[in-house]
UniProtKB/TrEMBL annotation:
InterPro entries assigned to the protein according to its UniProt record, in alphabetical order: BphY/WalK/GraS-like (IPR050351), HAMP_dom (IPR003660), HATPase_C_sf (IPR036890), HATPase_dom (IPR003594), His_kinase_dom (IPR005467), HisK_dim/P_dom (IPR003661), HisK_dim/P_sf (IPR036097), PAS (IPR000014)
Record's protein name: histidine kinase
One GO CC term on file: plasma membrane
Lineage: Bacteria, Bacillati, Bacillota, Tissierellia, Dethiosulfatibacter
GO molecular function annotations of the record: phosphoprotein phosphatase activity; phosphorelay sensor kinase activity
Enzyme class, broadest EC rank: transferase
Localization per Swiss-Prot or TrEMBL: Membrane
Record-annotated HAMP domain positions: 203-255
Catalyzed reactions per annotation: ATP + protein L-histidine = ADP + protein N-phospho-L-histidine
Native species: Dethiosulfatibacter aminovorans DSM 17477
Main localization (coarse): membrane
Domain of life of the source: Bacteria
Keywords of the record: Kinase, Membrane, Phosphoprotein, Transferase, Transmembrane, Transmembrane helix, Two-component regulatory system
């Protein structure tokens, strides 16, 4: 009977479905058990942690002296699930149960209780959290139970006692059993359906033979778009595959030219660079969407290619192209954008120059970065030139005889020292900024109260504000909040921003400083009524060496790198700094820091 293709197919499908359903069933029940047990384990750990956190009695020493209070705590204040049992075991010689949700075990030795795993208690005394799941034949009055022993240390590091929690697993394994029954029924149904469909499917095996015959007749008429469905890998399937291979090769040879054309069009259309092709008369042969956008070419209007190129740059006139033999490059500006244009000739079927291809690459960002590098070098040179010139001139004066006048010499030496300190600060700021830009800075992120660090910083800067008779208003935050931050980094952010507020606020001015919570963020606000920042300059104040008023900034000192460093510190801690300012009215900085979660604290 099984020599027939029909029955062979039916048997194969039956076995495949059976094996697949068996593996799926085993996987589902195994994963279900694992997920359930993992979830219970995490729940038990969380429950024990919450019990520990609920009272200082369990966190300190002298459980033996406070056993009555601990028992009252467990009985009255700790919620125990209907399928849980809790035992507080004192680490004495008998391992006495001093508190329990199972009142009958009070005062018993943990070693003698049938409800407690003695080996688990011994293992937990080594200082580790241990757990176990007894097998079905384990002698337990509650049935199959998960056990967890959680050792609690006192201040000297020794173990004061054990919090022992059990969880009945009957409901878990009832669920797994019901799932197994459901999967078994599904398997039986799938096998029944497989037999029915397999029987009728086998009858369709002769269909491909008729299909091959019909499509071979169509090929004899010149229609090569014929494909036979391959339904098996036997002789019939191999015949169908060879038939399809024949039609595929014939069709591929016929459509190769069309495919190449389509490929080129797709490449041109989706290139990031602009590509445009002209023939030798200057007519546009092809232009991709990027080139059309750059050159503002309208498909509905006739466009003169020679005129377009001449308007772009003198290097792209027809005479210049002929002189360069249609091969070269040029950098041009179009609507505040910078493009690097490379062009080269292409040949026609007669091996003659048939036209020129132009590729336009947007290098605006690259040019901007080059300009920034040049500006940075110029700024560093300028910042170093002034103190170096001062040191040199004062040194020459001293060597020229000023050393004889002690008062003058001391004055000059103090100037030299101050300028040296200025160069030292500049170099240190540059090095720190460089490390942060290259992600080499190391941060010691710890939970901090942002208002506490803010208060320390305000205290340090208070004298500077008093020197200018400024009113420093500090609103303390009363909420218990924490952020994950490097303390030195946070303090530097505060110092830079508050220091600038003091520096650019006139005498008798007012600076308001406060801290509060908005949603999941701690917000520190620093507002002054100083000179303000022009709106056009606000977005650039965090750049290196950028000064709104360069002359006034240099008179007031500083390296010009403070806010650049501030920005990098903030970015490294997922912090946003917002700036609002009006000229002659003042400036407000908002430092928005994400509050630390419990997971971050434990990390």
């Amino acid at each position: 009977m099984f020599k027939s293709i029909r029955w062979r197919f039916t048997l194969i499908y039956f076995l495949l479905v059976f094996m697949a359903m068996a593996m799926v069933g085993f996987f589902i029940t195994d994963q279900l058990e694992k997920i359930q047990l993992d979830s219970i384990t995490e729940s038990m750990k969380s429950h024990i942690s919450s019990i520990l956190a609920s009272s200082s009695l369990l966190q300190g020493e002298e459980w033996s002296e406070n056993s009555q209070l601990i028992d009252e705590l467990i009985e009255n204040n700790v919620q125990i699930g209907y399928n849980e049992s809790l035992y507080i075991i004192l680490n004495d010689s008998a391992k006495t149960i001093i508190a329990s949700s199972v009142r009958s075990t009070m005062g018993d030795s943990a070693y003698e209780s049938r409800r407690i795993d003695n080996l688990l208690v011994l293992d937990s005394l080594k200082g580790d959290i241990v757990e176990t799941i007894p097998s079905e034949d384990y002698d337990q009055p509650e049935g199959r139970v998960k056990h967890m022993a959680y050792p609690v240390n006192n201040k000297d590091g020794s173990i004061e006692g054990i919090i022992y929690l059990t969880y009945q697993l009957d409901s878990v394994y009832e669920t797994i059993g019901e799932t197994t029954i459901m999967l078994t029924r599904a398997t039986m149904l799938a096998l029944f359906v497989t037999v029915i469909f397999g029987f009728f499917l086998a009858r369709s095996i002769t269909g491909p033979i008729k299909d091959v015959t019909k499509k071979a007749r169509e090929m004899s008429k010149g229609n090569f778009d014929q494909v036979v469905d391959v339904r098996s890998n036997d002789e019939i399937g191999q015949l169908a595959m060879m038939f399809n291979f024949l039609t595929k090769e014939l069709k591929k040879n016929i459509s190769s030219l069309h495919q190449e054309k389509s490929k080129m069009e797709t490449t041109f259309n989706y290139m990031a660079d602009g590509v445009i092709t002209f023939d030798m008369k200057g007519r546009i042969i092809h232009a991709n969407p990027v080139a059309k956008e750059i050159l503002e070419i309208d498909d509905e209007k006739e466009t003169d290619g020679n005129e377009i190129l001449s308007n772009l740059d003198y290097q792209l006139t027809r005479e210049a192209l002929v002189e360069n033999e249609f091969l070269g490059s040029a950098i041009i500006n179009i609507d505040d954008m910078i493009y690097n244009i490379n062009y080269a000739p292409f040949k026609n079927e007669m091996e003659e120059i048939g036209g020129v291809i132009f590729v336009m690459q947007d290098i605006t960002e690259q040019q901007r970065l080059d300009d920034m590098r040049k500006e940075f070098v110029a700024n560093v040179s300028h910042e170093l030139k002034t103190p170096i010139t001062t040191v040199k001139s004062y040194t020459e004066t001293l060597l020229g005889g000023a050393l004889e006048d002690r008062e003058t010499a001391e004055s000059f030496l103090n100037v030299i020292l101050n300028e040296s300190d200025r160069m030292d600060r500049l170099v240190k700021d540059l090095l720190r900024l460089s490390r942060m830009e290259f992600k080499q800075a190391k941060w010691n992120k710890v939970p901090l109260h942002p208002c506490s660090v803010l208060e320390e910083t305000v205290e340090k800067l208070k004298n500077r504000a008093e020197d200018k008779n400024q009113n420093l208003v500090f609103g303390r935050c009363t909420e218990e909040i924490e952020v994950m931050f490097d303390k030195d980094g946070l303090e530097q952010i505060y110092q830079n921003i508050i220091g600038n507020a003091i520096k650019y606020t006139p005498e008798n001015g007012e600076i308001k400083i406060g801290c509060h919570v908005e949603a999941d963020f701690a917000v520190v606000e620093i507002e002054d009524n100083g000179i303000g920042i022009p709106e056009a300059d606000i977005k650039r104040i965090f750049e290196r060496f950028y000064r709104v008023d360069k002359a006034r900034s240099r008179e007031m000192g500083g390296t010009g790198l403070g806010l650049a460093i501030t920005r990098h510190i903030a970015e490294a801690h997922h912090t946003v700094i917002e700036v609002e300012s009006s000229m002659d009215k003042g400036t407000r900085f908002r430092i928005v820091m994400p509050l630390s979660s419990r997971g971050e604290k434990n990390a």
